[in-house]
Description:
- By secondary structure, the protein is of the alpha/beta class.
- It has a domain at about 5-110 and about 295-325: ATPase, nucleotide binding domain (Nucleotidyltransferase, domain 5).
- Helix content is about 45%, strand content about 20%.
- It contains twelve helices and ten strands.
- It has a five-stranded mixed β-sheet, sandwiched between helices.
- Helix 3 crosses helix 11.
- The longest helix is centred in the C-terminal third of the chain and has 25 residues, at about 225-250.
- The radius of gyration is 21 Å and the shape is globular.
- It starts with 5 loop residues before the first strand and ends with a helix.
Amino acid sequence: MINGKRWIGMDGGGTKTQCVIGDEKGQILAMSIGESTNIQSNSHTHVKAVLFRLIDEVIRESDSNESHIETLYLCLSGSGRAKDRETIEDFFKGTIYENILSIENDAIAALAAGTWGEPGIVIIAGTGSIAYGINPSKMDAIRVGGWGYLFGDEGSGYWIGKRAIQSVLKAYDGRGDVTELSHIIKDYFRIKEVPELISVIHGDPNPRLKIASAAPLVLNAAERSDPVAKNIIHEAMENLINLVDSTKQRMQSRDKWPIVIHGGLFSNSFFREQFMSKLKSSMGDVTLIQPNLPPVIGAYIMALRSKDILIDDEVQSNVTWSWNLLN
């Protein structure tokens, strides 16, 4: 058994959850991966079981002990409301973690992965979309967007996929422009006629993810200069820039916070470069960061910072080296 204090960070998204354990010097000692822990889309029993399994795994793999844990820092999607955080807190009542637990939205982890826990703004564009800003002078966390696919998620992968399907349906009706997307969407969903889209989408166990999965096709068509696809991507970027701008305005500060980009859409070089160009044109001289480390490391960094541990160059170097070693 290895002695010494330990910190656990966890990033729980809509599709998977990652957990790491490390020491105060930035050495990542173990990692575990599991299913989604979004409390909005999974049962409480499922979420609790996954959380405890991943925690137990990193403790065991690092040859540590529960008593070594100084902070358990959970950054979980679907935990933005106080009521949801209270539900998760209840999972840990009566356990050794009850009084060392912190629960935040998963956007905090994504931001910290890019800024090492320093203040800034993060824009996340994956299946959904959300922007988050941290203003240390007010000890404030500002959230903009992230209201889910029924009411929000503008500019997200789901939004792009939905707009593409709508455009294909309108073109079929003769009330929209002819677009390359019609053939692309039919091929992708393996249908012969456009109306079959309705049964294919509604018949899927997760229509939201099914629709979002079409986003890369729209990006490819836009890159090939299809006018309809280009317009969809342009609107998506404008929506995301609006999230960033609204976050910045609500932070009520003249400081030029760095802006961290995160999410599946930004892994596409065409989308990323176009977005960064449009953002700079809209907001002027901004520092854009695409993290080299995943959000789970951001959660671990926040765990260290919660105990006032300085994230200096040595800690940053240790984190990067040890994470790369694990992977």
